[in-house]
Amino acid sequence: MTGTLDPITTGWSSKDRFVSRYGCTPVDPSWNERQFNFARRIKQPDLRDDAASEQVHWATNRPGDWPSVKTFAFDHRLQMEEMDGYTAAKGAAFKELCLDAALKVQNGQGGYGILCDNRIGRSALQRASGTGLWIGRPTEWPGSRPVALEPELGVDCGQLTEWPRDNVVKLLVFCHPDDDAGLRAQQQEVVKRLFTTARRNDLEFLLELIPSKVGPVDDETTPQLIQQFYDAGVYPDWWKLEPFKTDAGWRNAVEAITRNDPRTRGIVVLGLDAPEDNLSASFALAARQSLVKGFAVGRTIFGDAARAWMTGEIGDAEAVEQMAGRFARLCRIWDDARDAAQENVA
Asked: Is 267 in a helix, a strand, or coil?
């Protein structure tokens, strides 16, 4: 089939015979995508094989909007399995209580989320669908370095075909710029394979980086890692990053992301089991960056409740009340930090 259609809007040229993308409405170019191709000019006539154009197509056609994501992370598996009194049945039941606490704080409002696994927390994960929560779902084998995936995903990550479209594929990687070339290549291969499969299945992808557990860190450590993954062809919809201790650290990370992907969803700050006072200080720095959309904190919220509940010291209602209270306080701390940051800009 030949044509003289507009190459900017359709990918057709008057000299070439090809189909730019297969499908109907879902593959139509967005307005921003058209402007991108118009400004850059067509580099490759079959747009589906033009990585830059495909990234803009994906990023400007993602459903929904998340300007704020305050997240209760209870996707922990290893940490929970090591608690006194833990059994698989108790673990599943406790994660249901974690979801109850998250929903209590959410109370039908937007801008709240959870991280929940499918191995221990399957029932909670299934019940969370349709609640309006942002839902992140881990894929890494806990504590693995080099990173390995949960066996349920399959070697080719084929299980992602069964995931609900509102689940965000989350992967944690313990990595450092000083890693040797072999280890770096091994980890990047896993990340790229999972990212590619997630994209193929219309699932958003969150990449979590924790270099501090591997070696010393400074204001350039995480930005270097971010660039390495972009260079490997990985474009996360979301980044989950350790809190930086300086404004320079945050600026460097944000600049590394926006330089490579100005259309990313954003960043959430992880907690690393930090006390509430420490989180308050880290939130104050992070909230100054508009690309940081919120936080994803777990053990600070559920740690004490889980240990007491597993051994029978407290019941369901008390556990939910304690976790909801802590989650709500962190949400207020984040909101106050964001308000203060915006006032300083004004």
From this structure: strand
